[in-house]
């Protein structure tokens, strides 16, 4: 393997992108964009834990047939060790130079396998580990420390990995997510794929998030709407996403007396077009990574109201590209909504500034280019 590393300047860099699956999510979309955008000088391969997800068709159209290393349930089962050995053998067979692993479960397989195979490994840390229990956080931190390099997609995540998990700062890079504005604008132009409730002349706020995890805090949005309603201010809300928490949220909207203006749209494939019909957007989570939902709202030219958590402050500067409030403070949300509604010209300026920021700082070309440079730097580094 060391001879191979010495020759990498004369041969393609053999890179594996390893992720859990290709369901629709921020991580999976970014992996797909890397597969599309990296130069043809790479020898790219894809590995997954599950051969599943609607994005898998796009992966296959790019010419990739993902190799599957299934966990088959609990990490504590003997199968986990078997998959690590299988992957190590596969990496050696294909003379892989570098593995980029994008999520917790995949890192448990990929990091030790890469070490056994003599390949370099980069671990992606893309959230604040808010959904993990103590044991999983410790395990993830250990896998991260074993990696040759770490990619965070927000400054808050880099800070956590360095300060709380003890990684040297020079082994952690921040690369923000990228967005293909041309493709986004084309999706806006395609229009709606399904009808929307007619808001009439009432302004509309849109919230895009799953309804699986309490950290998304749709409850705070509902409370803010109720506060405005009490003052006589009408504001419709489109909640895009679904999950087991939806019935409780629907019941809460009824109890607060705002159900007539709160529309649960479930999963939508036309979010860009939907953003184009809203007045502003909101993401009021108590924990976040780098939110694609916020990025897409900005790309649509909407002022976004976000909480001061995770990657949100990387995207929104309060009063410039939107408004920033503290998490779990529905009264602050209501105040921010009131400001945007009462100052439409200021809101439009914020939306335009948000769009310019996406074009300048969050382009797909910039994201891919930064990964390209990092891959080559890490691959050429001598084994420690």
From TrEMBL:
<protein>
    <submittedName>
        <fullName>Glycosyltransferase</fullName>
    </submittedName>
</protein>
<dbReference type="GO" id="GO:0016757">
    <property type="term" value="F:glycosyltransferase activity"/>
</dbReference>
<dbReference type="Pfam" id="PF13439">
    <property type="entry name" value="Glyco_transf_4"/>
</dbReference>
<dbReference type="Pfam" id="PF00534">
    <property type="entry name" value="Glycos_transf_1"/>
</dbReference>
<keyword id="KW-0808">Transferase</keyword>
<feature type="domain" description="Glycosyltransferase subfamily 4-like N-terminal">
    <location>
        <begin position="24"/>
        <end position="183"/>
    </location>
</feature>
<dbReference type="InterPro" id="IPR028098">
    <property type="entry name" value="Glyco_trans_4-like_N"/>
</dbReference>
<feature type="domain" description="Glycosyl transferase family 1">
    <location>
        <begin position="196"/>
        <end position="356"/>
    </location>
</feature>
<dbReference type="InterPro" id="IPR001296">
    <property type="entry name" value="Glyco_trans_1"/>
</dbReference>
<keyword id="KW-0328">Glycosyltransferase</keyword>
């Amino acid at each position: 393997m060391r001879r191979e590393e010495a020759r990498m300047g004369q041969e393609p860099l053999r890179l594996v992108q390893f992720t859990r699956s290709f369901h629709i999510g921020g991580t999976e979309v970014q992996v797909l964009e890397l597969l599309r955008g990296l130069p043809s000088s790479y020898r790219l391969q894809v590995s997954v834990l599950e051969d599943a997800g609607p994005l898998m068709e796009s992966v296959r159209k790019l010419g990739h047939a993902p190799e599957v290393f299934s966990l088959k349930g609990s990490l504590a089962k003997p199968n986990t060790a078997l998959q690590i050995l299988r992957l190590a053998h596969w990496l050696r067979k294909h003379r892989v130079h570098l593995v980029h692993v994008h999520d917790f479960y995949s890192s448990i397989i990929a990091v030790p396998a890469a070490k056994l195979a003599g390949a370099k490994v980069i671990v992606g840390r893309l959230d604040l580990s808010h959904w993990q229990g103590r044991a999983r956080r410790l395990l993830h931190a250990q896998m991260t420390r074993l990696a040759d390099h770490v990619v965070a997609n927000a400054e808050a995540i880099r800070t956590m990995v360095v300060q709380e998990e003890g990684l040297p700062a020079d082994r952690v890079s921040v690369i923000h997510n990228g967005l293909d504005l041309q493709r986004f604008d084309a999706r806006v132009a395609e229009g709606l794929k399904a009808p929307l409730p007619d808001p009439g002349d009432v302004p509309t706020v849109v919230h895009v998030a799953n309804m699986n995890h309490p950290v998304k805090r749709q409850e705070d949005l509902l409370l803010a709407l109720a506060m405005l309603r009490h003052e006589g201010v009408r504001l419709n809300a489109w909640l895009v996403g679904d999950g087991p928490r939806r019935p409780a949220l629907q019941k809460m909207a009824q109890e607060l007396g705002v159900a007539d203006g709160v529309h649960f749209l479930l999963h939508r494939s036309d979010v860009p077009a939907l953003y184009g019909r809203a007045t502003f957007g909101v993401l009021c989570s108590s924990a976040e990574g780098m939110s694609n939902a916020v990025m897409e709202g900005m790309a649509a030219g909407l002022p976004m109201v976000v909480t001061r958590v995770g990657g949100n402050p990387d995207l929104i500067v309060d009063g410039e590209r939107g408004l920033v409030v503290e998490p779990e403070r529905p009264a602050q949300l209501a105040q921010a909504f009131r400001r945007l509604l009462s100052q439409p010209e200021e809101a439009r300026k914020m939306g335009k500034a948000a769009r310019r920021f996406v074009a300048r700082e969050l382009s797909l070309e910039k994201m891919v280019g930064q990964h390209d440079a990092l891959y080559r730097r890490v691959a050429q580094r001598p084994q420690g």
